[in-house]
Design goal:
The chain is an alpha/beta fold. The chain has helices at residues 58-61, 172-179, 255-269, 292-303, 319-337; strands at residues 6-12, 45-50, 64-66, 86-91, 94-98, 104-108, 114-118, 149-156, 162-165, 197-201, 209-213, 240-246, 278-283, 308-310. The structure holds guanosine-5'-triphosphate and magnesium ion. Residues 168-174, 186-188, 190-193, 215-216, 283-284, 286-287, 312-314 line the site of guanosine-5'-triphosphate.
Length: 338
């Protein structure tokens, strides 16, 4: 399935039904009073988060959404039927932004969260309401109100606890495949991962948590180099970032420089990202060779008080330690929130 995390749409709520102009007509009741009923309310447009969806793809194909109008009022004080509400399901984690004012309107961050995004117009009052002592034959009624309309931006930000970050080809997808049931594509070339993957990690006797694997970043991502940094929004809301750095003898470039480059891109994307707790993970430890790159990275982390864990997704070395460390940190983060 195609992954789409951004869409612009136009929504319009239903028009209110017209109030009726009518006079009572019955045998033996000459010149009965006004009995025109009220119009029904126009349908609302409602957006609701659903756990069954994981992309905004549908909104690329269909861009305009209109709810039903209210029915007109009728004789004998009969109320017109309300227009049906239009319900638009979106993935959990979708944010709704007003395209015109850029104002963030709603953040549908849990299953079932919903927002009435455009209100249906009120139905007009029928002429039954307008008779007075001096005006017994009101030949008018209210029209229904317009439904609200809006141009919206929908932006999906996956909700994960831990985000994986790093250059391409360093083993991000391999790690998520080892610690969760996710089965992303893994290959020995850059940009194997083209769209984010989520994996649920279920440690023994601990709470499960969600990890997001995103496409690799390279220097200049903020200018659109490589796949760009558009996918960083999916790790914007995680509690922790795992910054993966290749420490194998096959790895290219200085490991500390590599790490700095990614952090620079993070900062350019959103400076707050640097405030998020980061754990540095040295990958491919099974082929670390003379350990030169490992020692260089670990030394830097120790000097700067950065947590460092070395792993091998191939032999499993360090993986248990990493998962249990993540569980601890997430427990702390949850405790701090409550
Ligand atoms: N020896 C060894 N190879 C590994 C390890 N982890 C990953 N690899 C290999 O490294 C290559 C890249 O792995 P991926 O998991 O696809 O890397 P990625 O970071 O997801 O790459 P992109 O999606 O392109 O950003 C693959 O050939 C993996 O088999 C490891 O711990 N040891
Ligand atoms: Mg990958």
């Amino acid at each position: 399935m195609k992954f789409v995390d951004y869409a612009t749409i136009y929504v319009k709520a239903g028009h209110g039904g017209k109030g009726a102009i009518h006079f009572r007509r019955e045998k033996y009741v000459p010149r009965g009073g006004p009995d025109g009923g009220d119009g029904g309310r126009g349908g609302h447009v409602i957006i609701r988060a659903s756990g069954n969806l994981n992309t905004l793809l549908d909104f690329r194909y269909k861009r305009e959404y209109m709810a039903q109008s209210g029915a007109h009022g009728q004789k004998q004080r009969m109320h017109g039927k309300d227009g049906e509400d239009l319900l638009l399901p979106v993935p959990v984690g979708t944010q709704i932004i007003d395209e015109t004012t850029k104002e963030a309107l709603f953040d549908l961050d849990h299953e079932g969260a919903e927002a009435v995004i455009a209100k249906g117009g009120r139905g007009g009052q029928g002429n039954q309401h307008f008779a007075t002592a001096t005006r017994q034959v009101p030949r008018f009624a209210q029209p229904g109100e317009e439904g609200e309309e809006r141009h919206l931006v929908l932006e999906l930000k996956l909700l994960a606890d831990v985000g994986l970050l790093g250059l391409p080809n360093i083993g991000k997808s391999t790690l998520i495949s080892v610690i969760s049931s996710a089965r992303p594509k893994i290959a020995d070339y850059q940009f194997t991962t083209l769209v984010p993957n989520l994996g649920v990690v279920k440690p023994d006797n601990r709470r499960s948590f969600v990890v997001a694997d995103i496409p690799g970043l390279i220097e200049g991502a903020h200018k659109g180099v490589g796949l760009g940094f558009q996918f960083l929004r999916h790790v914007e809301r995680t509690s922790l970032l795992l910054h993966l750095v290749d420490i194998s003898e096959m790895g290219e470039g200085d490991p500390v420089d590599n790490m700095m480059k990614i952090n620079r891109e993070l900062e350019l994307f959103n400076p707050d990202m640097l405030l998020k707790p980061q754990i540095v993970v040295g990958t491919k430890y099974d082929i670390a060779g003379n350990m030169q790159r490992h020692d260089r990275l670990k030394g830097h982390c120790d000097d700067n008080n950065i947590k460092f864990i070395a792993i091998s997704s191939v032999t499993g070395m360090g993986i248990k330690k990493l998962v249990s460390y993540l569980s601890d940190r997430l427990d702390e983060a949850r405790a701090a929130k409550t």
